[in-house]
Amino acid sequence: MKIAVLGTGMVGQALAARLSGLGHTVTVGTRDPEATLARTEPDVGAWLGEHPEVTLAPYAEATAGAELVVLAGNGAASHDMLAAAGGDHLDGTVVLDISNPLDFSAGFPPSLFVKDTDSLGEQLQRRFPGLRVVKSLNTLNASLMVEPAALGTSSTVFVSGDDAGAKALVVALLESFGHDDVIDLGGIETARGTEMVLPLWLRLMAALGTPHFNLKVVRRAS
Amino acid sequence: MKIAVLGTGMVGQALAARLSGLGHTVTVGTRDPEATLARTEPDVGAWLGEHPEVTLAPYAEATAGAELVVLAGNGAASHDMLAAAGGDHLDGTVVLDISNPLDFSAGFPPSLFVKDTDSLGEQLQRRFPGLRVVKSLNTLNASLMVEPAALGTSSTVFVSGDDAGAKALVVALLESFGHDDVIDLGGIETARGTEMVLPLWLRLMAALGTPHFNLKVVRRAS
């Protein structure tokens, strides 16, 4: 599958490397490739050297012809990323939205710039109604997103979205990463539930001293 | 231990019955016992008939001399419950706050009337600084709060509070219920994390078609 991963940070790199390793054709999208390569934090140039099969391109070029666009950047930039990618002209494209609406304006821990009565996933779906937005993977650490087996036991990820076909595509991708417990929460408005997990996740990371954990929804076998 | 359970609904009944069954002396606190007994929903009179060892009393009487006060009512009423119980005169008492800041003013699913940059647990601790507030058990169904073994496998509950002794008392109580994975998140401000789980919990209940589930924090053995 031809996939565009928007975002060059930890999440973008984890997704791009894993998807590429699974045989997909991956282009990482960024605003300005030259500016991205000029930075050393993150050192995307060095990372690309280790992943020669992944290419770097401006948002619009990366997403042209992509069957799947992965939003893997800062949530505050998600709107602009999709707009720069020409979101209005990508009708029908599946968007896997991993971003969280983090607001660092008051320092750490961040609060959320949208919550409870709306969500970033819904905002994006409303602004780009032709896209098929699926919220997922925003409740765990980047390395575990793509390699959940590292925990040694089953844990849960969630999908929220209005388009059944788009969700099926994302679920198949999650299963190819090793996820064995994907719960379909329903429409994109259920992203309110998963985006609000971040405040617990941040306190758990502090209490456990590691980001290497995930939630498992324990229920009786149905 | 002498325990006051404030709240006569599902959560209050589950806690009172379980605590009483474990040998504690339990009084259920309510605003006006006569009015409570006159209602049929919930039918507290019938429930008390099945639990003759539990007594019903006004808030102030129920909490007088209690070593532990359990806030098991509607979160919107928690402030008033503690005030009616004479919260300013209960200095040193441990308060197990199970309540969630649910706002049903726009119907179902409820939103939260405090979130993200504050929490109901913190509000209560600020308003009644002499109390030793511990937030816990607000992330799962009433029957599983007191009987987690019904899930057949380990799941997680959290404690948040500023007083180590109060948390130790609550953790011992949770263990007596059968909880085998209690994570201490830190100070009462970490209640922001657990109170914001409710939006996910509500969507999970809808998706799974049952409230009989809980979260397990899966991490590598430390």
Automatic annotation (TrEMBL), chains A, B:
Residues 2-101 form the Pyrroline-5-carboxylate reductase catalytic N-terminal domain. GO terms for molecular function: oxidoreductase activity. This is NADP oxidoreductase. The keyword RNA-binding does not apply. InterPro entries: NAD(P)-bd_dom_sf, P5C_Rdtase_cat_N, STEAP_metalloreductase. Pfam families: F420_oxidored (PF03807). Keywords: Oxidoreductase. The keyword Cell inner membrane does not apply.
